[in-house]
UniProtKB/TrEMBL annotation:
This is YheC/YheD family protein. It holds the Pfam family ATPgrasp_YheCD. It comes from the Bacteria.
Length: 458
């Protein structure tokens, strides 16, 4: 779709400009065949207003009376796309993108959203580049049957709270299931979709059981999937331990490597358990699988775990290597790989998360430091890319929720085979991008805005 950007100008009432009239640049009116002095519907987000358009010899601008601007929630200085639909007589400006954030720190004006404030500024810069307005709001602002929302926007070097219409597109960056499942949040999203046609992406967290159960329905993906089940009882543990020398128990809603237990079969009938904690790994050895189960049974009752086959993965200096692929939809709505990075586990850990002392490198560097032969590295890189896209499409096909980006954790075993470790629907904005510290808009952020524009059709 061809788009044109216009600058929003809010000016006092004049003989030409009342609260039912907007003034559009002649050149843009000609390009979009916008009829002059005729009534039409002006739309910004969920806001709709009958207006008359008059034209003037100005450069790429759309002028508003302050009363009309306040009524539809438009703010001075915005650079927005404009699109006129002849068949329905609607002049749309936008898109308006809303981002759901977990909390606002009112006593920290420079970092009101904590660690993701820099990401929110970067999203704002990308929206300015591509002709969109973006606002950020926590769960407390989300109400049922709302026609507007109080949200934060960044302009002129500071964050300000303003009133906006319900956005064209909402991106869910809530960082806990507790926030996501609040009744007011769920009702707000339901109403936004049903009443205003809002597109919501990354609608929910995925858990490990849900992911593996869904992907098993796609026969073409079976080769990527280690044997993995929702843990149920001792018999399941005993059966899996008889088939695999290493097993993992992972909290199904866990993140950052928290709470993972590694079980290793030792010579004889002994088993060693490694428990992750903030200081590293705690080891404990048991004379039998039944003794091990008795020791951890209490822990297994406190939350649900996924029991997963351990893999003989490539390493460097004894440290496990895995890969995080960031797969996103872009300007055409199609899945594409934005980045893949290698992650090397910390010295005292068996998981590679940065929060557990892991380090980043690029894929080429990670493979070069491993036992993968130089001739095999090219094909391994190609398999990592294919697996990333295959798995993203499998999630889309088998899980009835809308995702615009996925963090897909992959591993390579010592034979060069690619395996899926897990899928994250709220990938970090820090550890999944190309390794540079330049002050520019990252490709991952550009993709998010481009996809939101695609969804909004403005």
């Amino acid at each position: 779709m061809t788009r044109t950007k216009v600058g929003i100008s809010i000016q006092g009432t004049s003989i030409y400009l009342d609260d039912r009239t907007v003034v559009l640049s002649e050149a843009i009116a000609r390009k979009w065949k916008v009829p002059s002095n005729q009534s039409m519907v002006l739309r910004f987000g969920s806001a709709k207003q009958d207006v008359k358009v008059i034209t003037a010899a100005t450069s790429n601008s759309l002028r508003f009376n302050p009363v009309l601007a306040a009524k539809i929630g438009i703010h001075q200085g915005a650079q927005l796309n404009i699109h006129y639909r002849h068949n329905v007589g609607t002049l749309s400006i936008g898109p308006l993108i809303g981002v759901m954030i977990s909390r606002v720190y009112k006593n920290a004006p420079d970092r009101p959203f904590g660690a993701i404030t820099a990401f929110c500024k970067e999203m704002t810069a990308a929206c300015e580049r591509y002709g969109a307005v973006i606002c950020f709001f926590p769960p407390g602002e989300m109400q049922a049957n709302a026609s507007s929302i109080s949200a934060y926007a960044y302009s002129n070097g500071s964050w300000n709270k303003r009133t906006f219409p319900i956005p064209n597109v909402i991106y869910n960056r809530l960082t806990s299931r507790k926030y996501e499942n609040q009744p007011n949040v769920q009702q707000f999203l339901k109403d936004a979709k049903a009443r205003h046609g809002t597109e919501v992406f990354n609608e929910k967290y995925l858990n490990k059981t849900e992911v593996f159960d869904a992907l098993r329905k796609e026969s073409s993906l079976h080769g990527y999937l280690p044997e993995s089940y929702l843990f149920k009882n001792y018999q399941m543990l005993k059966s899996m331990a008889s088939r695999h020398p290493v097993l993992f128990l992972k909290p199904i809603t866990g993140s950052l490597g928290k709470g993972i237990i590694r079980i290793r079969r030792e010579p004889g009938d002994a088993y060693t358990c490694d428990f992750t904690n903030l200081n590293g790994v705690r080891k404990q050895t048991f004379p039998s699988i039944s003794a091990l189960f008795q020791a951890i049974a209490g822990k297994l009752k406190t939350q649900r775990y996924q029991l997963q086959q351990g893999l003989d993965l490539i390493t460097t200096d004894g440290k496990t290597i895995d890969f995080r692929s960031l797969v996103q939809r872009g300007a055409k709505g199609e899945w594409a790989i934005t980045s893949i990075v290698g992650r090397i586990a910390g010295t005292q850990h068996f998981v590679s998360n940065l929060a557990r002392g892991g380090t980043l490198t690029n894929v080429t560097g990670a493979l070069a430091r491993s036992s993968v032969s130089p001739t095999a590295r090219v094909s391994v890189k190609a398999r990592l890319r294919k697996a990333s896209l295959d798995i993203a499409k499998g999630i889309e096909a088998q899980i009835p929720s809308h995702f615009g980006e996925l963090g897909i954790d992959l591993a390579v075993d010592k034979t060069g085979k690619v395996w899926l470790l897990e899928v994250n629907s709220k990938p970090s904005k820090d550890d999944n991008t190309p390794l540079n510290n330049e002050k520019k808009i990252r490709p991952s952020v550009k993709q998010l805005v481009q996809y939101a524009k695609y969804l909004a059709k403005i």
